[in-house]
Design a protein that fits this description.
The complex is a heterodimer of chains A (659) and B (364). Chain A is α+β, with helices and mostly antiparallel strands and 659 residues long. Chain A folds into 3 domains: 53 residues, no CATH class; 199 residues, Penicillin-binding protein 2a (Domain 2); 388 residues, Beta-lactamase (3-Layer(aba) Sandwich), CATH 3.40.710. Chain A has 25 helices and 23 strands. In chain A, strands 2, 3, 4, 5, 10, 18 and 19 form a 7-stranded mixed β-sheet that branches. Chain B contains 15 helices and 3 strands. The chains are: A alpha+beta (659), B mainly alpha (364). Chains A and B meet through helix 1, helix 2 and helix 3 of A and helix 8, helix 11, helix 13 and helix 14 of B.
Chain lengths: 659, 364
């Protein structure tokens, strides 16, 4: 080509126009241009083939994800109702003001303008910034919640001014009973990073790529039943496949899967009973668990003081949080599950039955109590709580008067291995398996445990202390109530449960909770009867809780207890800033009634309450009275204005004051 | 008599070229109906433009090439005056000064230059004898450079590129020496950094985005990405007329103008796109044949330049939609919406027809 061109130049520079030759070279150039054009078209065709054939799948997917938007439909969270259908947790809908940051040009200015229409507090702003930092820019972020009708209307009218600002309807959780039973109901709160990680891990375990059930949900159970039954309460998130245009506006619905509401929980707890129990504590701290021994139904589950779970729903403000978290009364601790207390004398009935079943103490065995016990070959005196002793004491009377000397000897003759081994059938040292998270195992000591924990051998004296429920032994109120229920149920341990039935959100069918026997120890009826007699005597004149049984039209088998606080660790830094009042002994009380055919078994602990019979006993009595008789406690219930119906002898009062 | 008139009227139309052009315009109407969201008013409006443009094409086709040669200089001078007018009194819209108000009507002088520049250059080189010398090249460069600078200043890169191309084609076909061409390429490459600094920010951004559209998926890269998705998701057979999701759901920007090929490719697929490419190819080949048979140098140079410029339009627009070239404001000829460019285009084809009607009697 180049040479041809040169030829053209050389030949024609001097000549005049030679049309045919000129035209020849013009055509040559035209052909060059045509070939280049053809090559360019070839390039276009190749590119088309690459885009439309080779990369088709890729672009097809992109086009589909452009056009299809998956909008989750959040299911209604299941309700929580008590045994009589009283609502403990439900949902209501509120208007919220939300912003999609990606669609807003000047966020600060938009917020400033919005705040001229509705009040936006500094707290709202703080939450907004926090939520925004956690989310993608194209996700809707909550700015204001609980808009009233007027505010919502005002915003709706002005909405055209604010692209990217939305008024939505959101589901909010509400606990209509407020602080009542807050430790059993629990609460929900905002899903945080660790919740997300866990949800993702669970989804992977299910074989899914990522969790899709929580798309659109921003709250999750954080405590109590709300947490334990999270999966059932949450329900199944539905989805709407929408075809959207470039502005994100829905053009039409392609497909729609409706959400399945969460399951409703029907509790065995009676909120009225719960209320009576909580009120009976007054301002005192403590715990109460009441069970139906035959079925494991939890009738009342009290942790005092309580708190208002509604505070947590929207994200708790820092002042309220500090107040709850730093209070010396530790309202956030779930005492029935996590409070670990020495059982004190409430442990004795279980030691007694262990002795009887082992054949170590069979009637008519009795001792003459000098007020102390000495190990063979030693001179150390293990003192009874009553310095002068209880006189002649058999096993039944030993329970009634809570004779330490008797149980020292019994524990020694049984030995720690047999003692711990047997009472573990009553659930000591084990989780009860109640349907709540975070239960403590507390502690039932054995030599193996001591070796492992303290690298020390077991000393015989320690067995004696265990025999009266002191020393290393720790129980939770839940365990103590469960142990009492097992005793009342002749050794059959039924797993305790707060939820009695679950009404499925989808079908509406209610499925009752299945009774589950977790342990069963064969007890001799004679021995059970003997312990029961001893425990019934406790609430009769001369027993350590005679006043508790006074005037009761049903029989009560009970045991009082006192647990020393000082020098005994309680988990947590519970006594860090304690004052004297907090050094007082804990008052404990266990009971079941009616003694012949137990319908209710319970354990009560009043922290720093002093004596079990006088501090914890009356609470138990009020609970039993209402449950068995439907009797309400006297309205203001000032104990001093209500003297006992018949005079109790001075001896009994003096005894009650001690144990 | 009537028969004779009719024959004379039709006789100016190259039937092959006319058929191909009308076919392209019919395709255009269908694609525009889809791209405008089934806006019949818009399509009707465009049909009006088509009729006007076809009428003008016929008028031009009726003119003998001699007249076309005679008016080359006056048209060029008029165009230059108008361009200077734009620079001085032009109307600014969207940051560009392209329009001139002449009492009752608004005109865009750069459109006139699309025809005037190749005419002027063809006129100049047709007058030179034999091989153009360096001086001829310089005069050509000045004739081409003046309007280019004024148009670049508006700024209107797309039009400037096309006019530059049309001028270059005249120079090339007139015998621009290969050595000089090579020299320009080398110099151009060397001057690239300088030219780069001369570009407007948005123009630079467009070139940057071309190499990596993901850099700014919602901003400058959006056009390229969405067009790629539209074409790619069309597949072999396409999604069907009016069924392109990218087009119908507004994901494609400027879809009835510069990006109309993305709509076409999405709805008619690879098969449709290749057929359209074939149609354009046929028009170009026909144009080259007409150029080759031109009766004199002026006719040949002008016809060649017009045809190759048409090719350049097609290539630059499709390359842009396919992500091969930067996004410059070049519509797809015959198919994109817009009356002005259609008129200019068909006037160009009218010139081709006039040349064809007066071709050399001796066929090669």
């Amino acid at each position: 080509m180049v040479s041809g061109d040169r030829l053209f130049r050389m030949n024609f520079r001097s000549e005049l126009r030679n049309t045919p030759r000129e035209q020849y070279f013009f055509r040559l150039r035209l052909i060059v241009a045509g070939v280049v054009a053809l090559a360019c078209f070839g390039l276009l065709a190749t590119r088309l083939f690459y885009l439309q054939v080779i990369q088709y799948d890729h672009y097809h997917t992109l086009a589909e994800s452009n056009r299809i938007s998956l909008v989750p439909s959040v299911p209604n969270r299941g309700l929580i109702l008590d045994r009589n259908g009283v609502l403990l947790a439900h949902n209501y809908f509120v208007y919220t003001l939300e912003i999609v940051p990606a669609k807003v040009k000047n966020l600060e200015q938009t917020i400033a303008e919005l705040s001229r229409l509705v009040e936006i507090s500094s707290l709202d702003l703080k939450r907004f910034r926090k939520l925004r930092a956690e989310r993608h820019d194209f996700e809707s972020v909550l700015l204001r919640t609980r808009l009233n009708e007027e505010e919502a209307a005002r915003l709706a009218v002005n909405r055209y001014r604010f692209p990217g600002v939305e008024i939505r309807s959101r589901q909010l959780r509400h606990y209509p009973q407020g602080a009542l039973g807050s430790h059993l109901v629990g609460y929900i709160g905002r899903i945080n990073e660790s919740d997300l990680t866990r949800l993702h891990a669970e989804a992977v375990k299910r074989g899914e790529e990522t969790d899709s059930n929580y798309l659109g949900t921003d709250q999750i159970g954080k405590a109590g039943l709300e947490q334990y039954y999270e999966t059932r309460l949450h329900g199944v998130t539905g989805a709407q496949q929408l075809e959207v245009n470039a502005d994100g506006q829905a053009v039409r619905v392609l497909s729609s899967t409706p959400p399945v509401s969460g399951d409703n929980l029907m509790l065995s707890v009676d909120s009225k009973l719960q209320d009576i129990a909580e009120k009976a504590f007054g301002t005192r701290r403590g715990a109460l668990v009441a069970l139906d021994p035959a079925t494991g139904k939890v009738l009342a589950f009290v942790s005092m003081p309580t708190f208002d779970p509604n505070l947590f729903v929207d994200g708790i403000d820092s002042d309220s949080w500090r107040e709850l978290n730093e209070s010396l009364d530790k309202p956030l601790i779930n005492r029935p599950l996590r409070g670990r207390y020495p059982p004190g004398s409430t442990f004795k009935p279980f030691v007694a039955i262990a002795g009887l079943e082992a054949g170590v103490r069979q009637p008519p065995f009795s001792i003459s109590d000098p007020g102390f016990y000495m190990l063979p070959g030693q001179t150390h005196r293990y003192r009874d709580w009553k310095p002068e002793g209880h006189g002649v004491v058999d096993i039944r009377r030993a329970i009634t008067v809570s004779c330490d000397t008797f149980f020292y000897g019994l524990a020694h003759d049984l030995g720690i291995e047999r003692l711990s081994g047997f009472v573990s059938h009553f659930g000591f040292g084990k989780k009860s398996g109640i349907d709540l998270n975070g239960e403590s195992e507390a502690l039932l000591p054995t030599p193996t445990w001591k070796q492992k924990r303290w690298k020390q051998p077991w000393y015989p004296g320690e067995t004696l202390i265990v025999g009266i429920g002191q020393g290393y032994t720790l129980v939770t109120p839940m365990q103590l109530a469960q142990a009492t229920a097992i005793l009342a149920n002749n050794g059959v341990a039924v797993r305790p449960h707060l939820v009695d039935g679950i009404q499925e959100g989808g079908s509406g069918i209610t499925r009752p909770m299945v009774l589950e026997t977790v342990d069963k120890v064969t007890l001799d009826a004679k021995n059970v009867e003997l312990v029961r007699e001893g425990m019934m005597d406790v609430t009769r004149p001369g027993g350590t809780a005679a006043s508790v049984g006074a005037g009761a039209p049903y029989t009560i088998a009970a045991k009082t207890g006192t647990a020393q606080v000082v020098g005994i660790k309680q988990g947590e830094k519970y006594n860090a800033n304690s004052i004297d009042e907090r050094h007082r002994d804990h008052a404990l009380f266990i009971a079941y009634a009616p003694a012949e055919d137990p319908k209710i078994a319970l354990a009560v602990i009043v922290e720093n309450g002093g004596h079990g019979g006088s501090a914890a006993g009356p609470i138990a009595r009020q609970v039993m009275d209402y449950y068995l008789l439907g009797k309400l406690p006297p309205a203001p219930a000032p104990a001093k204005n209500a003297p006992p119906a018949k005079p109790v002898n001075a001896d009994a009062i003096e005894e009650e004051l001690h144990d | 008599m009537i028969k004779d008139l009719l024959r004379r009227a039709i006789g100016h139309f190259d039937q092959f070229l006319l058929g191909a052009l009308v076919l392209a315009l019919i395709v255009s109407m269908f694609v525009q109906y889809s791209a405008t969201g089934q806006d019949m008013a818009r399509v009707t409006n465009q049909m009006g433009s088509m009729l006007i443009a076809l009428a003008l094409m016929w008028s031009v086709a009726c003119l003998p090439p001699r007249v076309l040669q005679q008016i080359a200089v006056p048209v060029y001078v008029l165009g230059m005056l108008l361009l200077v007018g734009v620079a001085l009194f032009g109307e600014t819209s969207h940051g560009a000064r392209r329009w001139l108000h002449l009492g009752v009507m608004r005109i865009q002088p750069s459109e006139l230059m699309r025809i005037a520049v190749p005419m002027m250059l063809a006129w100049y080189f047709a007058r030179r004898e034999a091989i153009p010398r360096l001086r001829d090249h310089l005069v050509g460069a000045i004739l081409l450079g003046m309007p280019l600078l004024l148009i670049l200043k508006q700024p209107d890169l797309g039009t400037a590129l096309m006019i530059g191309a049309s001028g270059f084609y005249v120079l090339f076909l007139a015998g621009l020496s290969w050595r000089l061409l090579l020299g320009f390429v080398v110099m151009g490459s060397a001057a690239a950094p300088f030219l780069w600094s001369m570009l407007h920010d948005y123009q630079r951004r467009r070139i940057e985005i071309l190499f990596d559209p993901q850099q700014d998926p919602l901003g400058a890269g959006y056009h390229t990405i969405q067009a790629g998705i539209a074409l790619g998701s069309g597949g072999v057979a396409g999604k069907g007329w009016l069924y392109g999701t990218q087009s119908q759901l507004d994901f494609l920007p400027e879809r009835h103008t510069d990006f109309i090929f993305a709509v076409f490719g999405e709805e008619f697929g690879l098969v449709g796109s290749l057929l359209l490419l074939l149609l354009f190819g046929a028009i170009i080949v026909r144009g080259l044949v007409i150029a080759s048979n031109g009766s004199n140098t002026y006719c040949r140079l002008l016809a060649g330049s017009i045809t190759l410029t048409f090719f350049t339009y097609v290539f630059v627009n499709m390359g842009m939609v396919m992500g091969l070239l930067p996004v410059v404001g070049v519509p797809l000829p015959l198919v994109s919406y817009g009356g002005t460019s259609l008129v200019t285009l068909l006037v160009g084809f009218g010139i081709l027809m006039s040349i064809q009607a007066n071709k050399k009697l001796v066929a090669t």
